[in-house]
Amino acid sequence: MIAILCATPWEMKRVLRVLAGGRETEAPGGMSAWRGKGGARDVVALCVGVGKVAAAAGAMFLLERHRPEEFLVFGTAGALRDDVRLGDLVIAEEVIPADTGIAHSGGFHSTGPGVSAEGRLVFHPSFAASAEMLRGALAAASYASLPHRVGKVLTCDQVVLDPGLRLHLGNAFDALAVEMEGAAVAQVAEGAGVPFLAVRGISDELSHDFAGLERALEYRGQGRRNLWKERMRLSVEDPSVMDRARALAKGRDLALDALESFLSAYLGRR
Q1: 2-40 burial: b if 16+ Cβ within 10 Å, else e
Q2: Residue 132 is inside which H or E element, if any?
Q3: Could you give the CA distance from residue 198 to residue 210 in angstroms, rounded to a whole number?
């Protein structure tokens, strides 16, 4: 069985379009899970929500309930280089928990999480993908004629939409893209001895900025009426916000189109 983890409902919808005989199954609160077939493979797909805590909790749930043979993290990401374009696939040969580290007067230094090992605390600055899964992903992307890159992907517990910060992160880590879940799943997978891979579709390029995005999000207890009032207020204060929102939605859809084609090829060829 292969376990597919995604963060958002629109990513899960693309997974379900690929699965045959999909049926909803038990999931933790705040998550949704489906079982089905991908080619000859049994698949369990879990929509975990956004961020490292949700991703790690979801991965642990899958280990305990379904005992998967592989973990595939599937979803969108932001570009960290100007030659990584909308709709490109980024296949992560390595995921880096970039915002986990030590901050002192000399600046911030990424260390990755500290893991207990034989009475010692050992830090993991990165997690490598399964070589076999990586080969399968490259074959699937080529078979589906999808533009794709292989390289490092960062995991941060922030939506990074500042072009200057993105450029800095890309240069500092020699990375192609940034997302919010991959390294957390990789840590759980490595601890359990389960192969892992993250595949991301680029939804927003290096130059994309979206000041005010936090005001357009829906918050717990807010209510739909207040949400739309706040969005209307934001669009009046800054008319360009609608253009930026449309650009982000367009990029997301391009990324999801590529991811869906990739997943169909990946599952169908294994």
Answers
A1: bbbbbbeeebbebbeebbeebeeeebbeebebbbbebee
A2: helix 131-143
A3: 25
CA distance 48 to 111: 25
Whether the Cβ atoms of residue 176 and residue 88 lie closer than 8 Å to each other: no
Of 174, 11, 209, 18, residue with least CA distance to 96: 174
Q: What is the pLDDT of residues 172-231, one digit of tens each?
A: 999 999 999 999 999 999 999 999 999 999 999 999 888 888 887 888 888 888 888 888
What angle do helix axes 240-268 and 224-237 make, rounded to 10 degrees? 120
What SS3 class is residue 38? Answer: strand
Separation CA 196–CA 107 (nearest Å): 32
| AA letter at 229 | K
Going from the N-terminus, what domains does the chain have, and what CATH number goes with each?
A: 2-209+256-268 (3.40.50.1580)
Rounded to 5°, the CA angle 23-250-175 comes to 90
In Å, how far are 35, 37, 162, 177, 241 from 209, measured between CA atoms?
37, 39, 6, 15, 10
